[in-house]
Amino acid sequence: MTAAIEVADLTVSYGDVLALDGASLSVAAGRVTGLIGMNGSGKSTLFSALMGAVRPDHGTVRIGGLPSSAARRGGLVGYVPQAEAVDWAFPVSVRDVVMMGRYGRLGTTRRAGRADHAAVDEALARVELTELAGRQIGRLSGGQKKRAFVARGIAQGAEVLLLDEPFAGVDKRSEATIVRLLRELASAGRTVLVSTHDLHALPALADEAALLQRRVLFHGPVGEALAPERLALAFGVTPVHSATPSVTPVHSATPSVTPAHQATPSVAPAHRATPLATGEHA
Ligand SMILES: Nc1ncnc2c1ncn2[C@@H]1O[C@H](COP(=O)(O)OP(=O)(O)OP(=O)(O)O)[C@@H](O)[C@H]1O
Questions:
Q1: Residue 58 resides in a domain
Q2: Residue identifier of the C-alpha nearest atom 30 of ligand 1
């Protein structure tokens, strides 16, 4: 059976910075997979490659058997960006954002029809944002914003959903809603790849995890990925033998590259092309 996501020997560099170095990953449909790695390990770059928004130096990316750009054009891939990648001042409502998930399906009139409005209503209800549908997107809490973007992916009917740090700055209720939704989507056969620093959330969220450090060091069941020696490998530290995995000291010990990444346009043309990071026009 064709894997939902198939990354083979992927190498991506920005000038002389090697962001991915021979990364390979195969994800079956109907699974939630956590993507774990320290700052700068290449998680966002992998998402950009999955959306066809960066050109690999080497290697291939396939989504449902298609090259990533074709998969994105066909609406197969939904993307929930990091909060920093979105222009929250953009004058659109929550409902407008969710409707963007339908753009690829609108006919030549570019007019939303009854089915589009129904899909948007249903997606808003599933993320519990019906009552806030008319509000400007920037005037939501961090968790509500994430839920709005998850709703966009649901309305789009994306087979593969990519979420970049969906729990960063998110309240517990939103986190629980998002986890529940992602599990439901996977049960219905969708494929979900989630990057997160929150290792505590991982067992409830994901079926499996991939540890990334420019290449995929390990990919397998969450329990095995969280073994101290494996985490140590991914985070480059001595194993900490404790019952609950903690990444905090490791994470905070590694310098964050996020601002550089956001400030440098070449990593994510998808982010720049539209203020709301649809990933559809790169
Ligand atoms: N546009 C760019 N120009 C130059 N280097 C870049 C660019 N974007 C990312 N990098 C570098 O590529 C490497 C991988 O970055 P990437 O953003 O993919 O990592 P990440 O795992 O998503 O990090 P974080 O957890 O901080 O979001 C880092 O060394 C980063 O500094």
A1: yes
A2: 40
